[in-house]
Design a protein that fits this description.
Largest sheet: none
CATH architecture of one domain: Alpha Horseshoe
Strand content: under 5%
Number of strands: 0
Structural class: mainly alpha
Distance between the termini: 117 Å
Helix content: 40-55%
CATH topology of one domain: Serine Threonine Protein Phosphatase 5, Tetratricopeptide repeat
CATH class of one domain: Mainly Alpha
Length: about 300
């Protein structure tokens, strides 16, 4: 810490330098026995936030030379980095600083709460969701909200926490998938249970971009082609948990009349098609059989026996 103080008092020290032997070098090598080199260039302040160095962050925030909003080389703010790494105390400290933009995303359009939920940092996600200035519906470049990101990985505790907030839309459809459909798709049984136990109104009839509901996704047997980009663990989980998730969704849908309404809609569409097509059935069959009788026999057909 004394080295950091002396460097801050040195006018020739570039406090915003990245991966150089000045303030960044002294913070990293004085506070970490063997720092891990990364491909992302960080400022000294960003590095301290990433590694949870609370006292260093607290000290640097008091210096007029430090810009706490300066991004790293991958366009990530120090606050977003701390949320991604799950540095609870640093996040709590930065939330009190009025200079911090709590919704500033990185180059992948992942906001701090998106990263916290995706990485499974419950305490950080709770702190962010409790802040009214945090946008809990922000969608990343892939179209996923914080709730959808947590459902995708299977962070059931974070899903349950988010669903206690009225600001979180349980049926958000920005990525052409609802969060419960994503959980069913990847076989995250405990996450689906959190959805159903939340007491929130869930629309099980919403269909994803493949025109399937959450129940239809759970009923469909997962194939290696469907989960070609996932690990064997994810594939085996989806295959094993699919039937259990289907039973839960079926029971939930029946209790709230959604499964019956979906099946009723399917029956009505079939009945409409049948009634509409019925007048054309006689003409179709007469045309089909008359054409069949008039058509010549194929060359491979055995010749008819002659009767003498």
């Amino acid at each position: 810490m004394e080295v950091v103080k002396s460097l801050l008092n040195d006018p020739s020290c570039n406090v915003d330098a990245m991966l150089t032997r000045d303030l960044y070098f002294n913070i990293s090598y004085q506070l970490a026995p063997s720092p891990t080199p990364t491909s992302t260039s960080l400022t000294a302040f960003n590095w301290a936030c990433a590694h949870g160095q609370f006292h260093v962050v607290e000290f640097l925030l008091k210096s007029p030379r430090i810009d706490p909003t300066k991004k790293s080389s991958n366009e990530t703010t120090p606050f977003n980095t701390a949320c991604y790494r799950g540095r609870d105390e640093v996040v709590k400290l930065l939330l009190r600083d009025p200079r911090i933009d709590v919704n500033e995303p990185n180059k992948s359009d992942m906001s701090p709460i998106n990263n916290a939920c995706f990485m499974g940092h419950l305490n950080v996600a709770f702190m962010l969701a409790s802040e009214t200035r945090v946008n809990v519906k922000h969608t990343s470049a892939s179209g996923a909200s914080p709730l959808q990101g947590a459902a995708f990985i299977g962070h059931a505790s974070i899903v349950g926490m988010l669903l206690t907030s009225d600001r979180v839309d349980i049926n958000q459809f920005d990525s052409q998938w609802t969060a419960i459909s994503i959980a069913a798709y990847y076989g995250n049984l405990s996450t689906v249970q959190r959805f159903l136990a939340s007491g929130r109104p869930i629309n099980l009839i919403l269909k994803n971009k493949n025109n399937k509901t959450a129940l239809e996704i759970a009923l469909s047997c997962p194939t290696r082609e469907r989960l070609s980009f996932e690990t064997d663990e994810v594939y085996n989980r989806a295959k094993k948990m699919g039937p259990a998730i289907a039973r839960l969704l079926t029971e939930f849908g029946r209790n709230f009349g959604q499964v019956q309404s979906e099946l009723r809609a399917q029956r009505e569409s079939f009945l409409f098609f049948f009634l509409f097509s019925f007048p054309f059935f006689p003409n179709f069959f007469s045309f089909f059989f008359s054409g069949l009788l008039k058509s010549p026999l194929p060359s491979w057909f055995p010749p008819r026996p002659r009767i003498s």
